[in-house]
């Protein structure tokens, strides 16, 4: 399985996703600063992966402090150190809630550890490290369950009675590279494929940063899943093509509000509108760590604005070097827009809940109630 995150007792490495699929290079993350930079620059991206790398980056830092005998002996001091680092890591990217969810849960845990009678600074850091390390395995298990639940729902509600298999369209990258493994929406595609009921997967290019053509296409080729890449502007024509017969669109999420409104990679909203027009099921796949009951609706979600050069340029190797099978590929950045043009580059958009048919989680698929509304709180009871 592709692994975006490699971790063992304070040794953290991430696969540099800015160089994929052309160069497969792991880079070490030794402390919170390295983690912050990797997240901000999108060397690692995807809501669950961001949260896990941030927490494990701090683990690596705490391991190193421990080895150097520099963990404060007073529990309150150790807790304060961790809290400041968490606050700093939270400033890396604003939209995905998984990061703040992880930071909040681990902060509570360190407060509890510090309050225990006779506890030391080491006990506090140990509690943090133990819980952060558990996140890695838990995310993988959740994704496998999401894949299973989503595939089952699609076969029940989106498959045609006369065709034993389905075609699915997905957007951005929600696979092994965006999580600790398997993926969310791409996990649903993987599950359909492993049950031999996937006729074909379509992935969008996902402009402007091409997480679809660089990362999802890479994962689909890697796993030998029958798949075709389209540009974002081809989705309407694909859905209109009855010989293709797309049964469902499955996307991931960076934050699902209490009413089901969903922030996900820019372009998701457009796909949901198209799905409604063409009578195609539109599904969001996300772990509980992406569902934010404290955010009432999409209006309250902060949308990250990214630099203009992500729209006006593109990075990759020369075509002839790839064609000739050259082992060492140099990546070059080329401009694709008229110099001087103004750029709008929101990284995410909000899909209103009324365009979503179901939200696939590890606990099951949430559908709207009789009142026509999602009740995401049922997942937490
Ligand atoms: O800007 P990115 O690449 O971090 O955005 C990623 C997405 O929008 C994904 O769909 C989302 O994080 C879910 S990943 C399982």
From TrEMBL:
Entry-linked Gene3D superfamilies: translation initiation factor eif-2b, domain 1, Translation initiation factor eif-2b, domain 2
Pathway the protein takes part in: Amino-acid biosynthesis; L-methionine biosynthesis via salvage pathway; L-methionine from S-methyl-5-thio-alpha-D-ribose 1-phosphate: step 1/6
Keyword tags: Amino-acid biosynthesis, Cytoplasm, Isomerase, Methionine biosynthesis, Nucleus
EC primary class: isomerase
GO biological process, any: L-methionine salvage from methylthioadenosine
Enzyme Commission identifier(s): 5.3.1.23
Keyword Isomerase attributed: yes
Active-site residues, record numbering mapped to chain: 254
Positions of the record's site feature: Transition state stabilizer: 172
Gene Ontology terms, MF aspect: S-methyl-5-thioribose-1-phosphate isomerase activity
One cellular component (GO) term of this entry: nucleus
InterPro entries membership: IF-2B-related (IPR000649), IF-M1Pi (IPR005251), IF_2B-like_C (IPR042529), Initiation_fac_2B_a/b/d (IPR011559), M1Pi_N (IPR027363), NagB/RpiA_transferase-like (IPR037171)
Location in or out of the cell: Cytoplasm; Nucleus
Record's catalysed reaction(s): 5-(methylsulfanyl)-alpha-D-ribose 1-phosphate = 5-(methylsulfanyl)-D-ribulose 1-phosphate
Record's function text: Catalyzes the interconversion of methylthioribose-1-phosphate (MTR-1-P) into methylthioribulose-1-phosphate (MTRu-1-P).
Assigned protein family: Belongs to the eIF-2B alpha/beta/delta subunits family. MtnA subfamily.
NCBIfam families: eIF-2B_rel (TIGR00524), PRK05720.1 (NF004326), salvage_mtnA (TIGR00512)
Name of this protein: Methylthioribose-1-phosphate isomerase
Organism: Penicillium cosmopolitanum
Gene: MRI1
């Amino acid at each position: 399985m592709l692994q975006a995150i490699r971790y063992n007792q304070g040794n953290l490495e991430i696969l540099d996703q800015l160089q994929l699929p052309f160069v497969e290079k792991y880079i070490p993350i030794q402390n919170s600063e390295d983690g912050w930079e990797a997240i901000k620059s999108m060397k690692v991206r995807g809501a669950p992966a961001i949260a896990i790398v941030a927490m494990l980056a701090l683990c690596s830092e705490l391991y190193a402090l421990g080895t150097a005998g520099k963990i404060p002996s007073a529990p309150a001091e150790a807790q304060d150190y961790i809290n400041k680092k968490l606050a700093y890591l939270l400033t890396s990217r604003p939209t995905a809630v998984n990061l703040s969810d992880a930071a909040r849960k681990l902060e509570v845990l360190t407060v509890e550890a510090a309050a225990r009678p006779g506890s030391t600074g080491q006990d506090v850091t140990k509690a943090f490290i133990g819980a952060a390390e558990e996140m890695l395995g838990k995310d993988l298990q959740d994704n496998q369950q999401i894949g299973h639940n989503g595939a089952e729902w699609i076969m029940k509600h989106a498959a045609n009675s006369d065709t034993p298999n389905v075609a699915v369209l997905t957007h951005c990258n929600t696979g092994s590279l965006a999580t600790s493994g398997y993926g969310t929406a791409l996990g649903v595609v993987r599950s359909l494929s492993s049950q031999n009921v996937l006729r074909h997967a379509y992935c969008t290019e996902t402009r402007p940063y091409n997480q679809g053509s660089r990362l999802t296409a890479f994962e689909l080729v890697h796993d030998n899943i029958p798949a075709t890449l389209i540009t974002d502007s081809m989705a309407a024509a694909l859905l209109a093509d009855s010989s293709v017969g797309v049964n469902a669109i499955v996307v991931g999420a960076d934050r699902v509000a209490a009413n089901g409104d969903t922030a996900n990679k820019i372009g998701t909203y457009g796909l949901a509108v198209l799905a409604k027009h063409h009578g195609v099921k539109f599904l969001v796949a996300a772990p509980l760590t992406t569902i934010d009951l404290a955010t009432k609706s999409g209006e309250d979600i902060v949308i990250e604005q990214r630099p203009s050069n992500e729209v006006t340029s593109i990075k990759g190797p020369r075509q002839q070097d790839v064609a000739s099978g050259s082992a060492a590929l140099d990546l070059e950045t080329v401009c694709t827009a008229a110099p001087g043009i103004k750029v709008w580059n929101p990284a995410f958009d909000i899909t209103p809940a009324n365009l979503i048919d179901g939200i696939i989680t590890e606990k099951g698929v949430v559908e709207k109630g009789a009142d026509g509304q999602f009740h995401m709180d049922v997942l937490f009871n």
